[in-house]
Amino acid sequence: MTDAELYRRIGQVLRRRRRLLGLTQMQVGLACGSTFQQVHKYECGLTGLSVARLVRLAAALRTTPCSVLEAAYAAPEPPCALPEAPACGLLRRS
């Protein structure tokens, strides 16, 4: 798993938890000493998290950093690329 994929998965877990609690990005940002823009970046996987920031975010979301990481690793792998379809008979040249 790449760093970008890990950040994306962690962000998905954070967003699901925030929505489950009915919180806005602004409320989470205020609770963990960040801005709603930064929370948005974390949720979209655009920015990596330090351990300290993960601890603060988890506390704001009333969970633990371990739970966030476990859920991120439990997320299913993205589907692999579909194989190329065989050429259609209509496209063959005679």
What does this structure look like?
This protein has 94 residues and is an all-alpha fold. The chain has one domain (3-74): Orthogonal Bundle (434 Repressor (Amino-terminal Domain)), CATH 1.10.260.40. The protein contains five helices and no strands. The chain has helices spanning 3-21, 25-32, 36-43, 51-60, 65-74. α2 (25-32) crosses α3 and α2 (25-32) packs across α4 (51-60). It is globular, with a radius of gyration of 19 Å. The protein starts with a helix and ends in a 20-residue tail after the last helix. The model is unreliable at 79-94 (pLDDT under 50).
Corresponding CATH architecture? Orthogonal Bundle
The whole-number mean of residue pLDDT values reads 84
CATH topology (level 3) name:
434 Repressor (Amino-terminal Domain)
Q: Count of DSSP helices? A: 5
Shape: globular
Helix content: 55-70%
Largest sheet: none
CATH superfamily: lambda repressor-like DNA-binding domains
Radius of gyration in whole Å, from Cα? Answer: 19 Å
The domain count comes to 1
CATH class descriptor: Mainly Alpha
Number of strands: 0
Q: Terminal Cα separation, in Å? A: 46 Å
**What portion of the residues fall into strands of 2 or more residues?**
under 5%
